[in-house]
Amino acid sequence: MFCPCGTKLNVIDVETGALHSLQQDDEEDISSFVLSPNDEILVTGSRALLLKQWNWRENKCVRTWKAVHIAPVASMAFDSTSTLLATGGCDSTIKIWDMIKQYCTHNLKGSSGVVHLVEFHPDVSRLQLFSSSIDYKIRIWDLNSSKCVAMLDGHFSAVTSLAFADGNTLISSGRDKICMVWDLKTRESKRTVPVYESVEAAVLLPEKGDFSQLGVKKQGLHFVTAGSKGILKVWEVATAACVYTQPMPFALKEEASERSLTQCMLVPERNEIVTVSVEHNIVLYDAQTLQLRKQLAGYNDEVLDVKFLGPGDSHIVVATNSPQLKVFELATSHCQILYGHTDTILALDVFRKGLMFVSCAKDKSLRVWRMNKDGRVLCVAQGLGHAHGVGAVSCSRLKESFVVTSSQDCTIKIWNIPESLTSKAKAALISSPEALHAKVTERGHDKDINSVAVSPNDKLIATGSQDRLAKLWACSDCSLLGVFAGHKRGIWCVQFSPVDQVLATSSADGTLKLWALRDFSCLKTFEGHDASVLKIIFVSRGMQLLSSGSDGLVKLWTIKTNECVKTLDGHEDKIWGLHSNKQDDMIVTASSDSCILLWKDVTEIEEEEAQAKQEEQIMKEQELSNLLHEKRYLKALGLAISLDRPHTVLMVVKAILKETDGRKHLEENIARLRKDQKEAVLTFLVTWNTNTRNCHEAQAVIETLLKHEAPDSLLQYSGIKSAVESLLPYTERHFQRLSRLLQASMFIDFMWQNMRLADASQQEDLTL
C-alpha cells in the first residue's frame, strides 16, 4: 500500500504494518502517483514538474524525466497492459507516455482547468481515455485521432471516480451527491442514483462471489460508495436503491468531518475493500461482508497520553487530541478506534492485570474499558459528576476496586468499580455501559489538579496542582494527611515509589523532587531539564526515575547518586505520555509532535556484550603470549594487529630482529601479511618512529615495505600520504643524529690514535 507524505511516498506492508519510504531527491512535494496493474512500475509526479519511475521493492529510482506539463501533474493512470501512462496536469492538458519506448505519444488539449481524473478504457482495442476537469464534464478521447469524441454532461460538481462495469457501461460518482450510469454506445445517461452524500469513490462489486450479506439478492450491477458520512453503502443499479448500509459506532454527520472517507478501492487478490479517511486511517474490510479485518491509524495529531495494555503488554492505548481512543496491537500495528467520549480525552490509566483501563476527558466524564480474549475493547462503565473537564485519573493497584479522578473544578472523586465489571463471566454479559457513582468528593486544591496517583497498597492518594502544592490523602475517606511544599511553579505529575515510602513530583520549574511520606520533607532535588517536567515514572525496581519534559527529552536519573545517567532525544515537542511495561524493560513515550516511540532497555544486553568482548580479549591476549613464546611470529603479528595493539606489534618486531638473520625473518613475515594488515602496521610505525628508542624497528619495517611493495601499490594504501608526511621529518632527524654520532665517533677514534702515538713516542724517549 502506498501513501504520499510530502516529499516521501510511504510503502506500508498491510500484514505487519511495517513502513519504508521512497524519498524524492528534488525535495519537492509529491503531487500524484500511480502503480501499474502488474504491480511492477510505480510513477510519481512532483511539484518540480518531474516524473520518476521507481523500483519500489528495492527503494530505487530507475528513471527521471520532465513531465512536459507547465504546471504540476494532478492525476495519473496506467492502461490495462501497463505500457501506456496518462498524466493530467493543472495546465489543462493530458499527456500519454509510452513506458517501453520512453517518449510522449499524445498531447491532448481541450480540458477546462485542472484535469483531476484520468482513466483508460479497460478494452485495449478501443484506445480510449476518459478524463474529467473542473467543468464537471467527462471527456472521451480517441487516441487514434487524438481528439475528444464525446462529452458526458450530467454532474453538477467535481467527478471523483469512474468505474467500468463492462465494455459499454460506465458508473461515475461526484461530490454533487449522485452517481450516474452511462451507456457508452449511445453516450447517454441510463440512470441517476441519488446517494445523499458527497461521494469520493464508487467501486463495482465483482459479478462472481457471494454478496448476500450485503443485500445482493439477485443478478445485476451493484456498487459500493464511500464519502462524507464515513460509511460504505451498497447500491443496486437496476433500482437505484441502497441495499446495504454499513453499521458504525458513531453518529452520522451530513457534512464532511474527520470520519469522512477520501478513497476506496477493491483488492480482488485479497478479497478486500480498502478505505482511507480524512484522519488518514487505512481500513481493510472483507469484500463480501464489509467486516473489519484490519485498521492502520494514520495521523495522530497531538498525543496526550499513552499506556501499555493487555496481559503481556501486547497493545498500547493512545489518547490523541480527539474524542476517540486508539488501541494498537504492537506486533501488527492493527488499530482499534474506540468511540464514546464526546470531547478531547486528556488522561489514561490501566489496572494491574492490564485488561481494564480508564479514560477521562473534557466532556466531564470517565469511562472504563475492558479488553476481551480476542483483543476487542468495549466500554463497560461511565461516570459523570465533575463540573469541568476531568484532567487526571489513577486506578487502584492491588485489585480492580476503585478509580480516583481529579478535575479543573479542583475536586477529587473516588469511584467504586462494581464486581460485575471485574468478573469475566459477568462482564461478557454487559450490553451497555454501567453508570458509576462517586462515593467520595473532596475539594483538594485552589487551582487545577494536574495529576493524581494511588499508592501501591491502595491506602494513600497523592495529588499535584497548579497551586505549586502536592497533597497526601487517605484513600478511605479522602481526609488530608499532609502537604508537600517546595516547588516554585505548578506541579505536573506525582508518583509513588513501588518500594519505598517516597513520593516523586515534577514541576514546571524544571525540577523533580523526592519527598518522605512520614514527615513530608524533601529528600532530593533533581535538576537538568530546561523546561517543564511533565511526566515521571519509577523504573529499575524503584532505583531510578524517568522524566519527560517540554524540551522533548527523556532523562534517566539514578536516585542514589542524584545524577542523570542517560538522555533520550527522540521527540521534537512536549512529551505528555510516558509509561513502562510490567517487565520494566521497555517504555513508550508520546508527544505533541504526533509521534509515539517505543524504547527498549538494552543495559543487560550491553553488559553481556562488554563481558563477552572482555573475555574474548583475554583469550586473544593469552593466545598472543603463547605464540610469542613459541616464536610463531606471523600469527602473533596478525593477532596483535587484529587486537589493535601497536606496542605489542612493536614487541613482536623487536623479538624477530633479535633472532639470527632477524632482518630476513622480518622481511618474510611482513611480506606475508594482508594489505589491510600492512596498512595497520604502517599506521603503527608512524608512532614508533617518533621515539628514538623504537626508530630502528620502524626504519626496518619501512625498508621492508619499500623493498617488497611497488610504488603504485604503496600509493593505494589508505593514509599513505599522511603517513609519509609524518615519517619524513623524524627520519631526517634520526639520520642527522646518526651523522653527528658518526662524526663524533671518527673524532674520538682520531684522538685515540694520536694519544697512542704520543704514548709510544714518550716511551721511546724514556728508553733512550
UniProtKB/TrEMBL annotation:
Compartments where found: Nucleus, Nucleolus
Gene3D superfamilies registered for this protein in UniProt: YVTN repeat-like/Quinoprotein amine dehydrogenase
Provenance organism: Bubo bubo
Pfam families: Utp13, WD40
Repeat region (WD), residues: 66-99, 108-151, 152-192, 338-372, 383-425, 442-473, 484-525, 526-567, 568-600
Stated name of the protein: Transducin beta like 3
Keyword tags: Nucleus, Repeat, WD repeat
Listed GO biological process terms: endonucleolytic cleavage in 5'-ETS of tricistronic rRNA transcript (SSU-rRNA, 5.8S rRNA, LSU-rRNA); endonucleolytic cleavage to generate mature 5'-end of SSU-rRNA from (SSU-rRNA, 5.8S rRNA, LSU-rRNA)
